[in-house]
Each structure stands twice: as C-alpha cells, then as structure tokens.
C-alpha cells in the first residue's frame, strides 16, 4: 500500500474520487475460464461454480472449477516455458521493460480491475481502486527495478580461483493466494517471481478468482510469453495437495491461514519442496497515555475496519494504558457506529460486507463466544440486514479476557477487542501473548519507548504512530504462526531465486 495513496479514512468519509469508479450497478463479469499455456479453456470436467456478490448474495457469474488434470496441464505449460528459457534467459532489462508495461496496463484498466475486485470480495470500490489497483501496479514497478539488479557477488578466497555467485530463478513456482486482496496478493508473488525469471502456476482463492484471470490477460498483452503464467481456479482443498506435491513444481509460495499453511508445509516437506508462508495474524495495537489520542483513535478505527477487517494485519487487539482506557473506549463508542457501512459501489462506503455467508457465520460465532466468556459489547456484535448481503456491524468488545476466542484466534472481520494494561512489561507480554506474530503497533510520543518496544515485540512489522502502511520496497512477513519468508523489499528475491556458486580454476596459478 502506498502511504501517499488517496485512500479512504474515517475522517474523510466522503472523499472525492479522482478516478472513474465504474459504479455501474448492472456490471456483470464474463464467466471465468482457466488460463493455461496462454489460452483460456474450460476445466477438464466442464464443472463451474457460482461467483456471488457478497453485497447482495446474488450469483453474478460462474467460474471454471479445475481438476487435477488441469493442474497437470498448467504445471506442464509452466515447466516447458521455464525449461526452454523463453523468459528466464532474457536479459533482466528486457523483463524489466515488460514488467513496467504490465504496471501501465494495470493502471489503464484500473476501473475494470477494481470493479471485479469489489464485486468478488464485496470491498468498497474506492478502496479497491485506491489501494488494491494502485499497490498492484506499484509491485510490478518495484519488480521492474529488481529485474535489473539480479547481481551475484565475487567471493574473496585464498584459493587460486575466481569464485563468484549467480542469482538464478528457482523454476516453476506454485503461487497460492487468499480471498481478501486477490489482485494485490497475486502481484506480491507474481511480480518478483517474473522479475527473477521464474514460471508460475497461480491458484487464487476459489471464491475470488476473477481478477487473477484478467491479470493473466494483461501479462500476455504486455508480452510475457505463453506458459510463463498459468491460472487454475477452483477448490484449494481439492487441488491443493496435487499442486503442492507435483514433481514439476520447484517451490510453493503460499499466503493464507495458518491452518492451511501448516498443511501445505507438511505435504511439501514430504517432497523436500521449499515453502514461503505468509499466514494469519491477530495484531496488537498498543496505545500509551502519552500518545496523540485523537490520531490514535483514527488509526485504531481504520486499523480494524479496513477491508471489513478482512486483512491479515488488522489491528484487532487493542491494548490501552489504563490511565486513558475509558477515554479511548468512549471515543470508539462515539466514532465506530458513525463509520459508513453499506453498498461497496457507493464512494461514501468505508465498510462493505464480509466476503461470504460462511465467513460472516464464523465472525459472529467468535464474537458470541467471546461475549459469553465475559466480554462487554461496546457497539455492534450483530449481523446487519442490508440488500441480502453478508454485512456485520463494526464491533467493539471491552473487558475481554486474554483467553477469549476473539483474542486467541484470528477473527477476520470488523471486530476489535480492548484490554487495559499497566506499564510496558504488561503491554509487551499481552502483545506477544498469542501464537501469531505478523504485525504490531505502538502509539506513543516517547521515541525511546518506541525503540524499546519495537525491539521486544515479536512481529514481522511494527508500526509506530500509524497503522497499516506498506510499500513494495519494505519487506513484509511474519514470525511464529504468522509464517516465514518475506515479500517486498529486496528480501523477496530470497524467496524466488537460488544462489549458484561458481569456482573457476585459473590456468597457470599455483596450486592447480
Ligand atoms: P485459506 O488458508 O483458507 O486459503 C488460502 C488459499 O489456499 C486459497 O487459494 C485456498 O483455495 C487454498 N487452499 C485451501 N486448502 C488448500 C490445500 N489443502 N492445499 C493448497 N491450497 C489450499 O485462507 P483465506 O480464507 O483465503 O484467507 C484468509 C487468511 O489468509 C487469513 O488467515 C489471513 O490472515 C491470511 N492472509 C495472510 C496474509 C499475509 O501476508 N500474511 C495476507 C492476506 C491474508
């Protein structure tokens, strides 16, 4: 996410969109097909499944449901593309030019991509355009720079040799992505993988695959050779093991839940196949009494409501120093119910529906279990009946026990738990007190304290006096059950390249 993007915020609930938002209520996407070897095709079984608009519960189109034969075909196409070197052996500068073209086409077709993303996930159109589309283009732009800098190093050794390293592509990468930011999270994998010269089989989430297919078309238009990117749509449970254990796959790059990540790691491990895992979180947002409280309330609110709380780095666990606990709670009680919830096509909407009926069921179950465990409902904690969509009222729960389900587990909905703390020790202990370690945040005006806490928080990313800002140039990933490996920054190259050492004997040198 670009820190400069024209993004929605709670204090700017009616932003003037600077783009054509494509808010056509009759927009219905074409049925989705698989994309294999540069060609659209039906699945081997001819099976399709429904694509439902989460804001109305209405089926808007259908998409091909791949089977294992389709996975074989996609891996074979990627394998051929990689092994024949149609992409991998091109100069980095040429790959870079194509990556920049992809970014340009993504911006040009931004309205279409945002409309698909909004319809598929139920996310506000303005959010889809300002964050998802913009950040997707930025990932390709950043990858274009990476493609030109795939340098090795010269190794200093007393041996009579010339020793150096080469950074080489891994081969065929299986990219498996989740439902919540389909386009953007595809880009975080596909863009650097392409920069390094790999071929890819992409399996997007079964219920939000439409933008992945349009992205494949865009890559083809920009000049990525056929077979370098292949997309198989369908059920992860049915296709996953086959793809992960496929002998033609060299690496798995997975973003999704800790539960599925553990399963994939287990299956891949049996085949000695490397896995990068970007997994879930339940991130602690810590507010000290010396913070700018007005600003903190803004960050807290967007930190748990962005994308209807369906984002891995949602600041869903608020920890507030006791001296200002009641004041913050009162501010949230006033602010949160005023955040506009509704039709994703309305530019005023900040919170859309959850992405599916089952996802809303799960959020409600975790909220009700947390309330039964003793939490007090400050606001929300109920479904919202609106146009047949899967809406849930933004929810704040206070007096929450640290063993409550909404604290221990990832809720993945518009839900905030609030707990008081006394002093830094307790703040750190509570923040680190779950199995997750994706991100954390600290609000304080004391810079020394900010430094002390950033070093003690067990999280892949720590925000200080802000929340959720990301950029392709900044590495992102988790520790503990939130995963391993990094996307973004130059570190991402570690997940899509391998280092080859070359040791050349020098003719005539002593010791030969
Ligand atoms: P999920 O784990 O249910 O599914 C993710 C992907 O895995 C989907 O494409 C799915 O079809 C596929 N899949 C399911 N079973 C599989 C199997 N057995 N083998 C192979 N693939 C399989 O996650 P979700 O519900 O789509 O997304 C939400 C989760 O993703 C949350 O936990 C969230 O925190 C996490 N997430 C993490 C990050 C990050 O960068 N760390 C970013 C976004 C989302």
Mean pLDDT level: 94
Poorly predicted ranges: 1-19
How many β-strand runs?
22
Strand fraction equals 15-25%
Query: Overall 3D geometry?
Result: globular
Structure, briefly:
It contains 14 helices and 22 strands.
Defining traits:
22 strands; binds nicotinamide-adenine-dinucleotide; single chain; 6-stranded mixed β-sheet; 7-stranded mixed β-sheet
Characterise this structure:
The protein is an alpha/beta fold. About 35% of the residues lie in helices and about 20% in strands. It has a seven-stranded mixed beta sheet with strand order 14-17-18-13-12-19-20, sandwiched between helices. The relative contact order is 0.14. Mean pLDDT is about 95; it is low at about 1-20. It binds nicotinamide-adenine-dinucleotide. Nicotinamide-adenine-dinucleotide binds near residues 255, 279 and 410.
List strands and helices in order, with pairings:
Blueprint: E1 34-36, E2 39-41, E3 48-53, E4 58-64, H1 68-83, H2 92-108, H3 110-121, H4 125-147, E5 154-155, E6 161-169, E7 172-176, H5 182-195, E8 199-203, H6 210-222, E9 229-231, H7 236-244, E10 251-255, H8 258-270, E11 275-278, E12 284-287, H9 293-305, E13 317-321, H10 322-335, H11 357-372, E14 376-379, E15 383-384, E16 391-392, E17 395-398, H12 405-408, E18 415-421, H13 423-431, E19 439-443, H14 447-456, E20 461-464, E21 483-484, E22 497-505
Parallel strand pairs: 7-8, 7-10, 8-9, 10-11, 12-13, 12-19, 13-18, 17-18, 19-20
Antiparallel strand pairs: 1-2, 3-4, 5-6, 6-22, 11-21, 14-17, 15-16
Helix pairs in contact: 1-7, 2-4, 2-6, 3-4, 3-6, 4-5
């Amino acid at each position: 996410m670009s820190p400069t993007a024209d993004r929605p915020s709670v204090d700017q609930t009616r932003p003037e969109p600077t783009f054509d938002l494509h808010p056509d209520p009759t927009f219905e996407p074409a049925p989705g097909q698989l994309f294999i070897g540069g060609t659209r095709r039906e699945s081997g079984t001819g099976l399709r499944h429904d694509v439902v608009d989460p804001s109305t519960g209405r089926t808007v189109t259908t998409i091909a449901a791949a089977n294992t034969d389709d996975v074989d075909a996609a891996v074979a196409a990627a394998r051929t593309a990689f092994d024949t070197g149609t992409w991998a052996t091109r100069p980095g500068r040429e790959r870079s030019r194509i990556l920049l073209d992809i970014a340009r086409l993504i911006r040009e077709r931004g309205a279409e991509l945002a409309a698909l993303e909004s319809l598929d996930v139920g996310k506000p159109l303005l959010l889809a355009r300002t964050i998802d589309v913009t950040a997707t283009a930025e990932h390709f732009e950043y990858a274009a720079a990476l493609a030109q800098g795939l340098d090795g190093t010269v190794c200093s050794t007393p041996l009579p040799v010339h020793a150096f390293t080469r950074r080489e592509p891994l081969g065929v990468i299986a990219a498996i992505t989740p439902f919540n930011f389909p386009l953007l999270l595809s880009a975080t994998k596909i863009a650097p993988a392409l920069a390094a010269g790999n071929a890819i089989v992409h399996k997007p989430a079964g219920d939000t695959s439409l933008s992945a297919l349009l992205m494949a078309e865009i890559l083809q238009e920009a000049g990525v050779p056929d077979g370098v990117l292949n997309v198989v749509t369908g059920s992860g449970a049915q296709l996953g093991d086959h793809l992960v254990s496929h002998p033609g796959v060299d690496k798995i790059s997975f973003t999704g839940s800790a539960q599925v990540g553990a399963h994939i790691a287990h299956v891949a491990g049996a085949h000695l196949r490397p896995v990068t895992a970007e997994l879930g979180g339940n991130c602690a947002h810590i507010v000290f009494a010396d913070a700018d409280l007005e600003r903190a309330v803004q960050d807290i609110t967007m930190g748990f409501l962005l994308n209807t709380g369906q984002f891995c780095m949602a600041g869903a666990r608020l920890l507030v120093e006791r001296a200002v606990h009641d004041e913050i709670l009162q501010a949230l009680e006033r602010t949160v119910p005023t955040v506009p919830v509704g039709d994703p096509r309305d530019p005023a909407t900040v919170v859309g529906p959850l992405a599916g009926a089952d996802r809303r069921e799960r959020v409600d179950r975790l909220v009700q279990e947390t309330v039964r465990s003793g939490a007090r409902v400050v606001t929300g904690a109920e479904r919202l009946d609106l146009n047949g969509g899967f809406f849930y009222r933004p929810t704040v729960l206070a007096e929450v026990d640290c063993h409550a389900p909404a604290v221990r587990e990832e809720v993945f909905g518009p839900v905030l738990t609030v707990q008081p703390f006394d002093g830094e020790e307790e703040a750190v202990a509570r923040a680190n007190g779950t199995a997750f370690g994706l991100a954390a945040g600290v609000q304080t005006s004391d810079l020394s304290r900010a430094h002390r806490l950033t070093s003690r928080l067990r999280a892949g990313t720590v925000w200080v006096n802000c929340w959720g800002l990301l950029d392709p140039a900044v590495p992102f990933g988790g520790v503990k059950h939130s995963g391993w490996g990094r996307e973004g920054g130059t570190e991402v190259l570690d997940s899509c390249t391998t280092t080859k050492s070359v040791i050349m004997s020098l003719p005539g040198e002593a010791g030969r």
